[in-house]
Specification:
Number of strands: 8
Oligomer: single chain
Strand content: 25-35%
Strand order of the largest sheet: 1-2-3-4-5
Distance between the termini: 108 Å
Helix content: 25-40%
Order of helices and strands: HHHEEEEEEEE
Number of helices: 3
Length: 159
């Protein structure tokens, strides 16, 4: 009987974590998790784009560039641009008195492309179109775009 009593009360060589160690690890994890959003907010605020600035103008020029690449003829001017895409499709882009650039397709609809515009000018040559936009806050942006099919009549019968 002495042998069994010694085994019950003698310390064993057990492996594992104590309650104190577990509480310490959990408190450190919670501390790091509570500071993580603060660190991420500081990093994200440095990369924010101000609405109505470069992002809107870049999107406008990207849409315009796509339309011009598909065009057969482009006629530019002050505050307006006419894009012919073949026999049955034309786009008319103009600066409205409300300081918005809008697009009409085949004389129908008004699709808003850009707001807060002071001036809009496009100059054309045979294959190049250079457009400049000045916003009401004084920022000027410009882009030169190329026609891929100048003078061609794509989509007509007999080709």
């Amino acid at each position: 009987m002495d042998v069994t009593m010694k085994n019950v009360f003698t310390p064993r060589d057990e492996k594992g974590f104590t309650l104190l160690e577990m509480l310490l690890v959990l408190s450190l994890i919670l501390l790091f998790l509570s500071l993580f959003p603060l660190i991420m907010n500081v990093n994200l605020s440095a990369s924010k784009v101000i609405p109505g600035q470069d992002q809107d103008v870049t999107m406008f020029f990207n849409h315009l560039s796509k339309d011009i690449r598909e065009a057969t003829e482009v006629v530019g001017g002050r505050n307006q641009l006419l894009i012919e895409k073949g026999k049955n499709e034309s786009l008319f882009i103009e600066l409205m008195p409300s300081r918005q650039i809008r697009r009409q397709r085949n004389g129908l609809g008004h699709v808003l492309l850009l707001e807060r515009v002071q001036s809009f000018t496009c100059n054309t040559t045979r294959q190049l179109v250079r457009c400049e936009v000045e916003l009401t806050n004084g920022v000027k942006k410009q882009r030169t775009m190329a026609l891929l099919y100048p003078g061609e009549r794509r989509g007509e019968e007999g080709e």
